[in-house]
Specification:
Layout (H helix, E strand, L loop, with lengths): L5 E2 L10 E14 L5 E11 L6 E5 L4 H8 L5 E7 L7 E6 L2 H9 L3 E6 L5 H11 L19 H14 L11
Antiparallel strand pairs: 1-2, 2-3, 2-4, 5-6, 5-7
């Protein structure tokens, strides 16, 4: 991984398994028209040697969120940021965990997504390989959901469940 990547936590985050320092760059677009509106967004992230830089910290309890991110068409880095009126924006935190970013957004925070730099992907993938195991039994349901089945398919499924479960389908009370 890039310079600044480390194992066994970081000075600022003893719970982290691995960290990497990054800097965040913003860009602004000014809409022309009756009112001049500025729209800020995160433009990119890059590795940083600055000791004051933000840290992407990988935590064992966020391994599933990292896995979800890596399995998308475009893995991303999520940046939580704020901007006070009349000031430039400032990044508050960064993550590669879908779950953590979703929590920020659920809390009403401003979160932007940027593509994960190619050199970062193997680093996150190695972490996921070491610390994430999908739960047994979790998987895609085979076949259509009952609500989307045609009448005869639904009846056949109900009959199979009755045979398997001793006369009634699960959740069905005999009259």
């Amino acid at each position: 991984m890039a310079a600044g990547a480390g194992e066994s936590g970081a000075a600022g985050d003893p719970q982290a398994v691995a960290t990497v320092s990054v800097e965040v760059a913003f860009e602004v677009q000014v809409a022309s028209g009756r009112w001049a509106l500025e729209q800020w967004r995160v433009a990119s992230i890059a590795p940083s040697e600055d000791p004051q830089a933000l840290q992407i910290a990988l935590h064992r309890d966020e391994a599933e969120g990292c896995w979800l991110n890596l399995t998308t068409d475009e893995p991303s880095v999520f940046v939580l940021w704020r901007r006070e009126e009349g000031e430039s924006p400032r990044a508050i935190d960064v993550t590669v965990s879908y779950a953590r970013a979703a929590g920020w957004m659920d809390g009403g925070e401003q979160v932007d997504r940027v593509p994960m730099p190619e050199p970062m992907r193997p680093w996150v993938a190695e972490f996921v390989d070491r610390h994430y195991r999908p739960e047994a039994g979790r998987g895609k349901r085979r076949g259509p959901k009952p609500s989307f089945m045609r009448g005869e398919e639904r009846e056949r499924m109900t009959e199979e469940e009755r045979r398997r479960f001793g006369g009634t389908a699960p959740g069905v009370v005999k009259p």
